[in-house]
Amino acid sequence: MRIGNIELKGTPLFLAPMEDVTYKSFRWMCKKYGADVMYTEFVSSEALVRDIEKTKQKMNLFDFDRPVAIQIYGHNINSMVRAAQVAEEAEPDFIDINFGCPMKKIVRHGAGAAMLKDLPKMQEMAAEIVKAVSLPVTAKTRLGWTESDKPIVEAAERLQDAGITALAIHGRTREQLYTGKADWTLIAEVKNNPKISIPIIGNGDINSAEKAKQFLDETGVDALMLGRGAIGRPWLFKEIKHFLETGELIPFPTVTEVVDVLREQIRLNLEWRDNERVGILMLRRHFAKYFPGLSNFRDLKIKLLRADTSDEVHEILAKIVTVYGDYQLDYSNASLR
């Protein structure tokens, strides 16, 4: 598949843009294990227009990221156009528009998935951004707003007409948030729509190599996007690629192997952040996902999630290795929540 001049071979695997998740250290880990395309955390157009430094820092890109997109969101077309131009100055490989975030703080202002309630405005916004920048522009969205309001087929056609070069679709409505199951049947309908010629990227509930292949076979999408399934499991990209290429599953890692991965992520995060405590706090969401299914693990998990310093964290990790070191983790029923 192609995004502008970017050629991606085989079935590319994308790391979904996630707020407070897809920062540098996590992107590095996912790239190390085979992610093909990176996204920054999503960036507020209004904050970019106001030149907010914390927001601008989200657009810091690194050589290992590429190809990489900066994703922007907002409800005001003029602000979004200006934000896209500011983002372009950071030299990503493409710009992505967030038409899918379901969170209340985003949709209450008419941004993210709320744009699915006004398809003409969505199309106009996309078209104006495409005209304003020289980079390829892509978009990410959902099936619709509610179970009875799923305009994704029309939305895809409109976005293609606006000049969007690829579209990622999360198989849920805004109403679902992240509950229930992702519905890939409408993603397949978009992909197989004879009016659609741009690449379609499928997203939602990919938490195993088998599911990745199942969704790919059922829909024929051009690429797969992993989000929550990769949190605490960045090697999922490697598992999927190996399975798609060979039909064989890679054995799940032992606790000792997982701790080694986590220690690397901690080291990278602390090198990136000036404040040790902030660097550790940022990782708590990841800590919570790294050790699924361990019996009698509650007390150690609570201590890990409450630790404030790297010394505390490494001390707890050493205890985890002592108690569970050779235990092979089982991600078969790992929750995406």
Notes on the protein architecture:
The protein has helices spanning 24-32, 45-49, 53-57, 77-89, 104-107, 119-132, 152-162, 185-191, 209-219, 236-246, 255-272, 276-281, 284-287, 298-306, 310-324, and strands spanning 2-3, 6-7, 13-15, 38-39, 43-44, 68-73, 94-99, 137-144, 167-173, 200-203, 223-226. The protein contains 15 helices and 11 strands. α4 (77-89) runs parallel beside α6 and α9 (209-219) packs across α10. The protein folds into 2 domains: 2-246, Alpha-Beta Barrel (TIM Barrel), CATH 3.20.20; 255-324, Non-ribosomal Peptide Synthetase Peptidyl Carrier Protein, Chain A (Orthogonal Bundle). The two termini are 31 Å apart. The strands form 2 sheets. Strands 3, 4, 5, 6, 7, 8, 9, 10 and 11 form a 9-stranded parallel sheet that branches. Helix content is 42%, strand content 14%.
